[in-house]
């Protein structure tokens, strides 16, 4: 049995303490009753955002993934791209970043892209991959700018089956689809397996009670 991923365990602990990762009963967009809920929008102050960006930067450096700039899809990705760029600069990698507007601007600099010129190998940053729609839209914008999408960085990989257009369980997860169908590397700070390992570790005795429900959910919907 492999030893727990130390960075992932630290991140899960941080997410719980920040109230971003919660346990109970939550209805997902796909209509599933999930025993946990991860809301990255609650990394909503300077200290939390800074620590979150530090986790992304550390995971990216450890991954060895090569990229020339960051791209944050609107809206959550905008803040993430800026914060991660700051942390990477602190790590000695000063990289440009860009993001998109939801609506094209017809004055000033115009267009939908803001920030540094989109060029070279571009890493897309987001909180999670649910349906992969945001990733596909980002890929189209990056390629239209003449650059090459090279990967996606996310906070949590839920490791569960995606749903198709009819609401049925798909064979692959959204992350697996991005890897196999779009050919992009996906780097996650933590996965559902890491979350389960944390619940079972005894690091937070109050949360151990949720391990069976999370395990059952993984067995039902996991990949």
TrEMBL record:
Q: Where does 5-phospho-alpha-D-ribose 1-diphosphate bind?
A: 29, 75-76, 101-102, 105, 107, 126-134
Write out the catalysed reaction.
orotidine 5'-phosphate + diphosphate = orotate + 5-phospho-alpha-D-ribose 1-diphosphate
Q: Give the top-rank taxon of the lineage listed in the UniProt record for this protein.
A: Bacteria
Provide the alphabetized UniProt keywords: Glycosyltransferase, Magnesium, Pyrimidine biosynthesis, Transferase
UniProt similarity note: Belongs to the purine/pyrimidine phosphoribosyltransferase family. PyrE subfamily.
Give one GO term, molecular function aspect: orotate phosphoribosyltransferase activity
- EC number annotated for this UniProt entry: 2.4.2.10
Functional pathway: Pyrimidine metabolism; UMP biosynthesis via de novo pathway; UMP from orotate: step 1/2
Q: Where is the Phosphoribosyltransferase domain?
A: 52-173
Q: How does it assemble?
A: Homodimer.
Q: Does the keyword Magnesium apply?
A: yes
Per its UniProt record, the required cofactor names are: Mg(2+)
Q: Does the keyword Phosphoprotein apply?
A: no
Q: Which organism is it from?
A: Rubrivivax benzoatilyticus
Give residues annotated as binding orotate. Answer: 37-38, 130, 158
State the protein's name: Orotate phosphoribosyltransferase
